[in-house]
Structures are given as C-alpha cells and as structure tokens.
User: Which sequence fits this backbone?
C-alpha cells in the first residue's frame, strides 16, 4: 500500500476516477480543487484499488478526500508531510485528519469542525419569506465582497484583505444569488459551485445580523439549491452553529460525514 503523486489533473483522474465517481460527495473538496492543485495524491491497495485521495491546492495545506486512518498515518511518515517542514493546516474527514495530525507528532489544534450534508427531497420554507431571489450582477460586487468577508469572520477564521476576485468569478458565472426584501434591497446571499461528477455545492450563505431571523437564508438557500442544476446538491455547515444545522435539515439536507480543519501550532 502506498501513496502516488502527480501534478497532472488528467493523470490523477485516470488513476483515481473510479473512487471519485463512486463517492463524489465524500470527495467534494478534492473534486473542487483538482484543477487548481499543485499536487495530487492517491492511496493504492496491494491489488491496485485506489481507496484514498488528497490534493494540495496551497503550499502546506493538504485536503483529504476519502482516506482511511491507515492511509493518513502513512502520509504523515513521508518526508514532505512530516517534521518541521510539514503542513501548517490539514483538512478533510475527521478520522483521517486526526490520524494524520497525531502521526506527525507535532502539536496541533482543531480550528474548525464541519458537517457535510447532501440534499434528499427539497422542502421549501412554509411560509416563504417575503421578497424574492435574483441573480447577482456586477453592480452587487462591492456588497457581496463585504458580506463574504463577514461570512469568513462569522465562521471564526481571519478574513483576507479582499474578496472581490472570488465574488466576481461567481457573479460572472451566474453562480451567486441574492434574496431581496420587499423594498428590493439585498438581505441575504448564497452561491453554488460548478457541477462536478453530477454534484454542486451550495456555499457562502450569509445574512447580515440586522436581517436575520426572518427566513431570508432559507429562501436564498432554496433558490441556490434549485439553480445548482445538479443531480446531487451538497453543503457544509459549521458544527458550532446549531441554527444553520437545523435550518438545512428542515430544507431536506441530510448528514453525510463530519470534517475537521486542524492547524499545527508548533514544531
């Protein structure tokens, strides 16, 4: 059993395609990052079956897809993934991340715990919130960038300097929706990812504090779910936020697996 690596997305898909197709939801993070990754890896069993995958989209920040604790521990034993020069952050399914972090022997802390959900049967909010959904336009970019910054702050991470680029990409692709109130002003937003392996992921769902508690997030999430146009629709929730976890389950989303972000705190 061993890890293999490549920088070629086509070679990675050729090697790991069967696994990615068989478990697209559990590998959604990997599928999202394949074409942007600097390094791609797959774990092969003695019979040649691929049972684990990972991507390294940013230096020092591997993301696991499906991977057993055994595969994660084996990765931690490799020179590029262990010791003082190893990763600063690792993400993926909780069991794999914990196994990897412990195997490095380095101090680490859990910085973010998430739960992956997959849509069962969409159940729109009843009664529906006031207002309607619309596709965001270029004129909405400054507001959406500001809201993206606040979203990152809300989930406990340190915001970057500028979110104009990521927001512009989503708006240009028609993948950002805004919920507008009766007066036409935006009160909530949600995005959805491009379809990969028949699935899309709803993300960046944000309502500013002054507009919360009125059902706008449910309205815009429902609209984004419908607009995603995928056979399977996924989303992640912050396990520390019981409100969002309950909301998405009311809309018909069902738990798949838990994920963890771990940061190494010392050498």
Assistant:
């Amino acid at each position: 059993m061993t890890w293999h690596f490549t920088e070629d997305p086509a070679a990675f898909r050729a090697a790991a395609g069967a696994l990615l197709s068989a478990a697209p939801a559990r590998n959604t993070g990997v599928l999202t990052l394949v074409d942007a990754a600097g390094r791609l890896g797959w774990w092969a069993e003695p019979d040649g079956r691929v049972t684990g995958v990972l991507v390294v989209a940013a230096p020092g920040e591997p993301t696991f897809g499906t991977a057993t604790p055994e595969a994660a521990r084996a990765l931690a034993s490799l020179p590029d993934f262990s010791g003082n020069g190893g990763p600063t952050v690792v993400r993926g399914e909780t069991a794999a991340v914990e196994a990897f972090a412990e195997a490095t022997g380095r101090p680490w802390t859990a910085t973010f715990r998430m739960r992956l959900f997959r849509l069962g049967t969409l159940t729109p909010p009843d009664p529906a919130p006031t207002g309607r959904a619309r596709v965001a336009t270029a004129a909405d970019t400054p507001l959406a960038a500001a809201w993206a910054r606040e979203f990152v702050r809300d989930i406990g991470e340190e915001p970057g300097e500028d979110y104009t680029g990521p927001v512009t990409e989503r708006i240009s692709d028609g993948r950002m929706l805004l919920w507008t109130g009766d007066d036409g002003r935006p009160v909530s937003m949600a995005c959805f990812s491009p379809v990969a392996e028949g699935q899309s992921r709803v993300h960046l769902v944000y309502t500013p504090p002054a507009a919360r508690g009125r059902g706008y997030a449910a309205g815009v999430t429902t609209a984004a779910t419908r607009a995603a146009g995928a056979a399977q629709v996924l989303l992640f929730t912050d396990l520390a936020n019981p409100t969002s976890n309950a909301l998405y389950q009311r809309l018909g989303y069902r738990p798949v697996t838990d994920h963890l972000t771990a940061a190494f705190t010392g050498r």
Remarks:
- The chain has a mean pLDDT of 94.
- The CA atoms of residues 45 and 156 lie 38 Å apart.
- The helical segments are 9-22, 28-33, 69-76, 94-104, 141-154, 164-172, 216-227, 242-250.
